[in-house]
């Protein structure tokens, strides 16, 4: 791997991605920072509309018109990807960084065999001849655990199941040994049993290659299972950031707490599923204060008026407890009084 | 695949029967006495009887149709009532010219149509897109005989670089091919554009980009191969229209194709020739559609063979 301990594989700073609609600029991602090291998995969690998918597509520079990256830097092992020309960046895509998508059913081209779709990536980046690339494709199918790979390579996508297709997608993504794999909801469209297999496979392949993984999901279960570090996104911003153990032990932000309470539990009797009332504010009418204030049970005037910064808590945290960073007034010196969330989320 | 082709071939049989039946009835359905119509007012009763005898019009319909089919299988389409030549011999050379003309028209229609369709889709909602689509509407709305006349005026009369009529040399091919192909190019361009736009936002196109495929290959390989599927159908239909629509172009450029032959035969009431031409054109049309089906199947792996 090209990276060392000082340089993260991926470092995103102040990323801003907007969509320019007839009604004006819509800020889908508004100043997001995070970094991933090699052999590490960063989970990005958030509900629909939080900007997590746009963030991942921005890293791949796959944002389509009318969307545009308007600010920030994206560095891959120290190289600023946003400064590369289209042609230069195409050499990195699928080679040094690659991506798998949510929809394995539609993510493969229906008119080409799966083998040729893997071989294509190999031919582009490794400059192998047709035969060698095909052999490499068969090897990749074998690596991702597809039985009878020689035969399957000649099949068309519609002849394979969803789980198999996602394995093929992983084979394409990993065929050139990327430093970074972005997995955008890789298991959402799959059966539960297949989900576990796919996550296990990604983990296994990561252990072999040492690549960094960016796991985008709305599912905290997936985060708990795969991630080392977690970024919680809400309405285009990071609202909490911590390593996975810390996050699950002591979620700080009321939104994170809400997400955790919304996970159905089997160990205690509950009549109703917990949920967070309301929806993510639309980018057209983004609140000027805390973006979660409208849905937050603890919101005060302060929250509605002033926009909080992502920071390490300086208030309302017990001595000796390690925390990550959060974007909430409760944990700042400006918050008057005790922590209203105390005890709320400790049931996790 | 072989079974698919065989099945499609078998399905052609009833269609071909229908075609021959309609063509056969052309003569029977002429109002009044066919022999009289063909021979003209001045013919004597003996001449009419002779003609009925020659055409077998005195036999029962079923017998006539049976004989007609039997002859057809032997590639015998009867004789012209004007010249007495076998219809097959009259039609064959003219048919080849019309097919050539239609094929050259297709070359223009497909190359121009696909090029501008893809251009338009990749630059959607830009000046290039609007320009191309405006041109397409113009091409579609312009009667092709008028386009032919304009071309003759510019290239033959004003510039004097191309011959006004005839068929055989490459100079004689250019203007008729453009005349024939323009409307088809417009239809294909519009179809290609909408089909490309449908495909270009698909997940697998994004996957291709994510693999590092260059934008050119994303468009021409990944998107185009899928967008082509509905376009092939339109191309096949266009070829059929070209065969039957050739008559106008042939007249404008004085090309001795099948279209002109049919028009002449109709005005001379030479029904066996009309009948023969209809059958040849219809069978060609059916056969082209059969080829389109096969192409469709080759392009679209998802078509269920059953």
Description of the molecule:
The complex is a heterodimer of chains A (348) and B (306). The mean pLDDT of chain A is 88. In chain A, a hairpin with a 2-residue loop joins β1 (10-21) and β2. Chain A is an alpha/beta fold and 348 residues long. Chain A has helices at residues 52-59, 86-92, 114-126, 130-143, 149-152, 162-174, 192-209, 220-226, 244-249, 254-261, 301-305, and strands spanning 10-21, 24-36, 41-45, 67-76, 79-80, 97-100, 180-184, 212-217, 229-234, 237-243, 325-326. Chain A has a seven-stranded mixed beta sheet, sandwiched between helices. Chain A has a four-stranded antiparallel beta sheet with strand order 2-1-4-5. Chain A has two domains: 10-232, P-loop containing nucleotide triphosphate hydrolases (Rossmann fold, 3-Layer(aba) Sandwich), CATH 3.40.50.300; 253-331, no CATH class. Chain A has eleven helices and eleven strands. In chain A, α3 (114-126) packs parallel to α6 (162-174) and α4 (130-143) packs across α6. With 306 residues, chain B is mostly helical. Helix content of chain B is 78%, strand content 0%. In chain B, α5 (87-122) packs parallel to α12, α6 packs across α8 and α7 crosses α8 (170-200). The radius of gyration of chain B is 24 Å and the shape is flat. Chain B starts with a helix and ends in a 7-residue tail after the last helix. Chain B: InterPro entries: BPD_transp_1_N, MetI-like, MetI-like_sf, Opp2B.
């Amino acid at each position: 791997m090209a990276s060392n301990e000082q340089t993260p594989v991926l470092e995103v700073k102040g990323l801003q991605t907007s969509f320019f609609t007839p009604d004006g600029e819509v800020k889908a991602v508004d100043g997001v920072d995070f970094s991933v090291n090699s052999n590490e998995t960063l989970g990005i969690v958030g509900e629909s509309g939080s900007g997590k998918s746009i963030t991942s597509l921005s890293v791949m520079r796959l944002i389509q018109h009318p969307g545009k990256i308007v600010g920030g830097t994206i560095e891959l092992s120290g190289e600023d990807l946003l400064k590369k020309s289209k042609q230069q960046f195409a050499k990195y895509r699928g080679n040094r960084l690659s991506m798998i998508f949510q929809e394995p059913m539609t993510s493969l081209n229906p008119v080409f065999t799966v083998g040729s779709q893997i071989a294509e990536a190999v031919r582009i980046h490794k400059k192998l001849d047709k035969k060698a690339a095909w052999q490499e494709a068969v090897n990749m199918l074998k690596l991702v655990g597809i039985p009878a790979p020689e035969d399957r390579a000649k099949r068309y996508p519609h002849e394979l199941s969803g789980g198999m297709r996602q394995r093929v997608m992983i084979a394409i993504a990993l065929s050139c040994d990327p430093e970074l794999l972005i997995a955008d909801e890789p298991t959402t469209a799959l059966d539960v049993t297949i989900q576990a297999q796919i996550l296990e496979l990604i983990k296994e392949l990561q252990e072999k290659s040492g690549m960094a993984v960016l796991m985008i999901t709305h599912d905290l279960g997936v985060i708990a299972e795969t991630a080392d570090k977690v970024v919680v996104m809400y309405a285009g911003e990071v609202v909490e950031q911590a390593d996975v153990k810390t996050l699950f032990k002591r979620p700080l932000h009321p939104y994170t707490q809400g997400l955790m309470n919304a996970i159905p539990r089997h160990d205690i009797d509950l009549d109703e599923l917990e949920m967070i009332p309301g929806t993510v504010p639309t980018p057209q009418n983004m609140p000027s204060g805390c973006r979660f204030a409208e849905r937050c049970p603890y919101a005060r005037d302060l929250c509605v008026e002033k926009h909080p910064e992502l920071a390490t808590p300086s208030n309302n945290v017990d001595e000796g407890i390690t925390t990550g960073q959060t974007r909430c007034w409760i944990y700042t010196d400006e918050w008057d009084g005790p922590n209203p969330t105390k005890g709320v989320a400790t049931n996790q | 695949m072989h079974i698919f082709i065989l099945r499609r071939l078998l399905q052609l049989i009833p269609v071909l029967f229908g075609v021959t039946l309609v063509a056969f009835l052309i003569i029977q359905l002429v109002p009044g006495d066919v022999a009289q119509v063909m021979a003209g007012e001045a013919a004597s009763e003996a001449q009419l009887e002779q003609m009925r005898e020659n055409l077998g019009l005195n036999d029962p319909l079923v017998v006539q149709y049976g004989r007609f089919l039997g002859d057809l299988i032997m590639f015998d389409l009867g004789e012209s009532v004007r010249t007495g030549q076998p219809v097959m011999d009259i039609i064959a050379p003219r048919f080849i010219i019309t097919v050539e003309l239609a094929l050259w028209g297709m070359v223009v229609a497909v190359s121009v149509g696909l090029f501008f369709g893809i251009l338009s889709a990749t630059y959607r909602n830009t000046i290039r897109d609007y320009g191309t689509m405006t041109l397409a509407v113009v091409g579609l709305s312009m009667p092709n005989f008028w386009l032919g006349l304009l071309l003759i005026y510019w290239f033959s009369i004003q510039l004097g670089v191309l011959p006004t009529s005839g068929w055989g040399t490459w100079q004689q091919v250019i203007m008729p091919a453009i005349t024939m192909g323009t409307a088809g190019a417009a239809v294909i361009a519009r179809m290609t554009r909408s089909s490309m736009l449908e495909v270009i936002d698909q997940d697998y196109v994004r996957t291709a980009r994510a693999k590092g495929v260059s934008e050119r290959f994303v468009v021409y390989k990944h998107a185009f191969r899928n967008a082509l599927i509905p376009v092939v159908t339109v191309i096949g239909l266009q070829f059929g229209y070209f065969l039957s629509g050739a008559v106008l172009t042939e007249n404008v450029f004085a090309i001795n194709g099948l279209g002109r032959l049919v028009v002449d035969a109709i005005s001379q009431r030479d029904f066996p020739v009309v009948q023969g031409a209809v059958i040849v054109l219809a069978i060609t049309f059916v056969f082209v559609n059969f080829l389109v089906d096969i192409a469709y199947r080759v392009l679209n792996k998802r078509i269920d063979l059953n």
